[in-house]
Amino acid sequence: MGMKGRTQVASQRILLPVSFFRRPADVVARELIGALVVSSVRGTRTAGRIVEAEAYLGHRDPASHGYRNRRHAQNEGLYGPAGNWYVYLSYGVHWCANLVAGRTPNEGAVLLRAVEPLEGLPAMRRRRGGVADRLLAAGPGRLSQALGITRSLDQWPMHEAVVQVYRGDPLAPPVATSRIGITRAVDWPLRFVEGGTRWASRPR
DNA sequence: GCGCCGATTGGCT
DNA sequence: GCCAATCGGCGCC
Known about the structure:
By secondary structure, the protein is an alpha+beta fold. It has helices at residues 3-11, 18-21, 25-32, 121-127, 140-147, and strands at 36-39, 46-56, 85-90, 94-101, 108-119, 163-166, 174-177, 191-194.
């Protein structure tokens, strides 16, 4: 394969199919590490590699918004099909973006916690108020702000949405740890971080 | 109706 | 390390 062929292969972007998400949330979370998130919110293109994601196990996970199938207006997205976005407002302040996983309603979801900024850095810096680049998208609220994600993305099928996720591989194997910022099921190893990344968030 | 809490973050002591 | 911001859901009268 010549130089041109290589470039074409490298730039080929394969949208993750719905079947990718029709698996347990912990599997989806692990395999999302290295995938590419591309946002075209309001015509501005920003993109990054997923370096941190957390699985939530739906109705059986005490830390999930859908624990015990408690259902209300804001968590309706958890009952939608795999591959849909589920976006919720955290602490009344920050948007947090998830992708629905599994084969049955409220089986699970994956919270995107950090991306390595790759494209559209000026837009990300503007949206994030000029913070240090390392903090552009290191944390679920920061990630959403950097990519322009708000409630308007909630419940959209990812493959039709203004924010899409493409195939990609991690630079180093994902490492599993406890989830961050929760008070229940704190020891479940459902957070996945790309080994050695400098772009992930950290517990306080 | 009221108070508390949360899958967060930024600012200040 | 501590706390406010700011909203929606919940438990509790």
